[in-house]
Write a structure and sequence with these properties.
By secondary structure, this protein is mainly α. It contains twelve helices and no strands. The protein has one domain.
Length: 274
């Protein structure tokens, strides 16, 4: 008499721990956003024009006039990190309009009924906003090298620059998402986005030192996260440059800003679908 065959029990899929699930969901969202960019890189190409104009036209003119005191740094060395931060800002600040498009196309509702948490959805979109800025950072690096900016090219400095760009862009992409959740229409978003970008840019140390600003503008500059992004980029990116603030403080401000904005956006995100 033969023994009965063993019946294999189907394997039961184990739910990953909450932190791992959060990371997986966020990365899935970010990967989806990056896949869109690979299919249509036109936006990155068009947004690369503006930083090129700042470096090749504005920077060259101001460098020749020597109108802005930058200490021991040449003006182009001073300007290049600011242009990189500006490029990342202008790309990230309009990230929210894509979320409004997703609402209109019905994609947002699919996200909201998925098992992914709201915070992981927002974190994934913030991460995508940060990663896409790395392409523009590479473009700025190439142009800066061609025009003679004294860049630090050791691996640690380049990795540090990439990290600052990703965190800073993630913060402003999340800020853009918060605005999109509040205004909920493309027309209002475009108007508010244009109003916000220029004050953020000019109330920072991107194109001139904080020390030459009037007192009231210095206060705003110290409250502006872009100031800390520019400061970290300048210290990590340019030979002979020093940070106005400790590098740890720059990272702390950018990271804290990103976390707070993600928490706010996660609360507001379902409102966009209403």
């Amino acid at each position: 008499m033969t023994s009965p065959e063993r019946v294999e029990r189907p394997a039961v899929w184990a739910e990953p721990p909450a932190p791992a699930r959060f990371v997986l969901d966020a990365w899935t969202i970010a990967e989806g956003e990056m896949r869109k960019l690979r299919h249509d890189p036109t936006e990155l190409i068009t947004r690369a024009v503006q930083p090129l104009l700042w470096l090749l036209v504005f920077g060259q003119v101001i460098a020749n006039t020597r109108a802005i005191p930058t200490g021991s740094l040449g003006y182009m060395d001073f300007l290049a990190p600011g242009v990189l931060a500006q490029s990342a800002l202008f790309s990230a600040i309009f990230f929210g309009i894509a979320v409004i498009w997703e609402r209109d196309l019905g994609v947002l509702h699919k996200y909201l009924v998925s098992p992914a948490s709201r915070s992981s959805l927002v974190t994934g979109k913030a991460l995508a906003g940060g990663l896409r800025s790395l392409v523009q950072a590479a473009m700025v690096y190439v142009v800066a090298l061609l025009i003679g900016v004294h860049l630090r090219l050791d691996p640690l400095s380049v990795i540090g620059v990439a990290l600052v760009v990703v965190i800073g862009s993630a913060a402003f992409a999340t800020f853009s998402l918060v605005i999109a959740c509040l205004v909920r229409t493309r027309e209002r978003f475009m108007g508010i986005g244009q109003i916000l970008t220029m004050p953020l840019f000019f109330a920072s140390s991107a194109i001139y030192p904080i020390s030459i600003m009037p007192n009231w503008l210095q206060v705003l500059a110290h409250l502006n996260p872009l100031t800390y992004q520019v400061d970290a980029l300048r210290g990590l990116m340019v030979e002979g440059a020093t940070e106005s603030f400790p590098l740890a403080l720059d990272f702390a401000v950018l990271s804290a800003t990103t976390v707070v904005l993600i928490a706010i956006a996660a609360r507001l995100y379902p409102r966009l679908a209403q």
